[in-house]
Amino acid sequence: MSRMTYLDAARQALVEEMRRDRSVWALGEDLGRGGVFGTYRGLADEFGPQRISDAPISEAAILGVAVGAAMLGTRPVAEMRFSDFALCATDELVNQAAKARFMFGGQARVPLVARMPIGMWRSSAAQHSQSLEAWYAHIPGLVVVCPATPADNKGLLKSAIRSDDPVVYMEHKNLWALEGEVPDDSDRCIPFGRARLVREGGDLTLVSWSAQVHVATAATETLAADGISAELLDLRSIWPWDREAVLASAARTGRLLVVHEAVQAGGFGAEIAATVAQETGARVRRLGAPRALIGYAPPVEDAVRVTEAMIVRAAREMLA
Amino acid sequence: MRNLDLDRLRAHHRLMLRIRALEETALRGMAERVVLGAIHPSIGQEAVAAGVIAQLAPDDILLSTHRGHGHTLAKGADAEAMIRELLGRVGGTCGGKGGSMHIADFSVGMLGANGVVGANIVIAAGAAHAIRLRGERRVVVCIFGDGAINRGPFLEGLNWAAVFALPVLFVCEDNGFAATTRTAAMTAGDGPAARARALGLHAEEVDGNDVLAVEDAARDAIAALRDGGGPRFLLAHTYRFTGHTAADVAAYRPEAEVAARRAHDPIARAASWLAEAGVAAPDLAADREAAQAEMADAYAAALAAPFPAAAEAFRDVQDAGAPA
Looking at this predicted complex, what is its ipTM? Predict the structure, then answer.
């Protein structure tokens, strides 16, 4: 194990995969200088400008080029900077990458990673803060990954790069500096669709992903001080999602609370809550952001955050 | 009279006839209600497919458009597999799951028609980028219509190919119409070639109904690509004799305009050059009959093929999180 940040864990994953497989390469704006967040720092020195390729500010081309290059057997990591900007490449991701294998009758594989950080951090306002994972979970053909910890950001990114499916890889910008223990084994890939049990408990099941997992973790501690034992599952990937683990936990506790940073209306929490209600009869509730935009000024921005206090309140109400 | 390579011209004549016979078979299938979805015939535009794609080696890559039957056949796809695809049958190039607008045959380097105008341009740049990364000498041809030049991926893809000096020949098949609107009415500036030149690409214009002129231009451009000279642009002026789709009667075009353009039918022109060079009329007729017989046989075989099973809906979607 080594202690490192969420950002460095992903960087290490990419370095290891690029050493392991010459067909892996990355493309995106500013990558030669480390990328907008430093996630590619030093990589151009080791791998050269062909495999760590700069790009024009052309999102459709970055993702479209990744599609074409993947069809010819390379494994591109397409860096989109912000999930908000990746919307400029929606056709390339949704109509091309996701559909090529099926609509060409199995002739094409598109093993690309569309790396598009999500989430609120301080004062980045409406076009640099969104969590759009539910959009892509709705598209057959795509895998959607939302890592919450340094160890997961290494193991899941490695799985994403090795996957033959197109993977939407959504790191949370507010987690870059988060430190944690990360396994050194360069072949430790974390499979998609396996939730991480963050905390065991018997009174209710909390399900979350990405940065919201940490808010939910704090909430479980507050609840524990009140004598409420909450189980917390970090889904890690939204599609596929770990139905088995979630259904088993909810069946045991009889109560499910899904919590996410994204807008609640049409959010992926609705899918989980509906599935659990249908399959187990457990009481379900979801907690997401109001269907409002993300503002710049701190009080405006904070007004759409899902806070620890809100999670604690919702959990107490479910147990009342 | 030009200096003809008679064998090559005869081969073009046969290929163009095969494309036309395939398209006419598709129209027949539409009339007989066995071609189920929309088709976009390329009748009248065959010289572009024949002249350009004949320059490619089997391992070179081609990307096409919704009007892509001719390109696909020219790249070497099997006619019967194509017609099976149009009919949505087992044994189609895509197993009946793509249809006309997603027709593809990766085994001959044809990476797909595309239902989204201009979307193939950035994918073509990516295929060429992969070729460059691997240090191969293969080239990519990307064909699109004049309507595509008003989409963003045209700018992004051409710029990308130029910046990275990629081996792509972009071919704009200019038939004058973007769906049912005259492209000129909705396009500012001096047109496709001027836009390509503004992005630093070497661009040529050619009479797209003259298969030999197309071939000459494509040969030079593709040779330059193989020498690492960066992307090229070829603007081929042509005309579609049918409407935008098989269902479009194209009443927005004066009959006199269509008649005038039909006088420049690329197949009739090739046939007249062959006749002038001494090829006997029965031999030319035999080319036509052979093409029609090939497609009639393919159509009959396709009609006899079954639809794919419903379970195909759940195959080849994805590995992780596949439909249960």
Answer: 0.97
